[in-house]
Amino acid sequence: MSRTTQNAAPTRHIELGLRQNLAQFVLLVTVNALVGGMLGQERTVVPLLGERVFGLRGYTAGLTFILVFGLAKAATNYFAGTWSDRFGRKPVLVVGWLVAVPVPLLLIWAPSWAWVVAANVLLGISQGLTWSTTVIMKIDLVGPARRGLAMGLNEAAGYGAVAATALATGYLADTYGLRPAPFLLGIAFAALGLGLSTLAVRETREHARLEAAGHVARADGKHDHLHSDLSNGEVFLQTSFKEPALSAASQAGLVNNLNDGLAWGLFPILFSAAGLSVAKIGVLAALYPAVWGVGQLFTGALSDRVGRKWLIASGMWLQALALGVIATVDSFAAWAVAAVLLGAGTAMVYPTLLASIGDVAHPAWRARSVGIYRLWRDGGFAAGALLAGIVADALGVRAAVWTVAALTAASGLVVAARMYETHHRPGSVEPKGAVDG
């Protein structure tokens, strides 16, 4: 099937599909790995900086860097989707990398905790622009049939890099100190990410327009109310509250990152209090996102075969179990097993939620819906930092872990009760052809 749009731009052949867009897809996977590396530089070291360098004693105060990161990233996610539709995906990606450049420098030179907080505002803005845009661009390229696989590869690259960088920074900090060595990696990641995004990444907005032109509604009528011309406010309401699958995914994403905020901010403190070395803390900080990252290579594709709903619900329940184990045990080996379980549960959930948003949202406003979902999901970082800090200050770190475990289990119940199976495709061929791009 061939479709064209009329404008003055030169014609470029555009097709949907992973194989047809493999070079750009691999490039975007590489870029997202660098995005993940920018986040991973903080996972082991920054909580220890707060405790050992800046003398922070209250858990709530120590988690302020995650709170501001979550708020900045959540808000930016929303605008990333809107701006990607208005200005194109590539300009938003490049701006995101420009914002990332000062982050490792601020962490290296920070004379006070306020500098670390400021760096995390910039990191949140950068992550919201870069990660959101790479997600949108991959969804644009592959079309509907391989969406779960695409999201699995995207998130595996990002969180695999989080894990590798958390491990590397742990060893660098153990050998050379908490600063500056661990953050030199961030300088390299920012330079590479900006260069690749500026010089090699190509715009994908026309791929979304091609899919929209050939969009076929579900035969069961579930999406009849989701027209192509929804306003920004209508897209927000559908994604957040009204549409059962979209809203169930949004709350699950929020709770998932709520427990990730807990893991990021309090697990290194919990492990340090048990007498573990910085190197061992780095191993545990890396193990959870490593399993999460590698697991998504399989779970994203699995959701294309078995569906989204029960993979998401089961993943939330497995995360809750893992958090309960972490709150109970007190040894490196037991924590390592729990970190593996937590990573596996997150791998079941993370790419599948994104794929479900792509399943339901119309291509004409899908970028905005992804941005709104990611607003809620990454708002979980802020909610997790605030909740975990308050509970930990009042009742201790383990009580905070138990609280988040209970919320995670409840979120799985919401998915089981409210979400329908979203991976339902009509028997049609993916649209492909030539358009003016």
TrEMBL record:
InterPro entries: MFS, MFS_dom, MFS_trans_sf, MFS_Transporters, Sugar_transporter_CS. It is a multi-pass membrane protein. This is MFS transporter. Pfam families: MFS_1. Keywords: Cell membrane, Membrane, Transmembrane, Transmembrane helix, Transport. Residues 16-423 form the Major facilitator superfamily (MFS) profile domain. Its main location: membrane. Signal peptide: none annotated. It is found in: Cell membrane. The chain crosses the membrane at residues 21-39, 59-80, 92-110, 116-137, 149-171, 183-201, 261-279, 310-327, 333-354, 401-420.
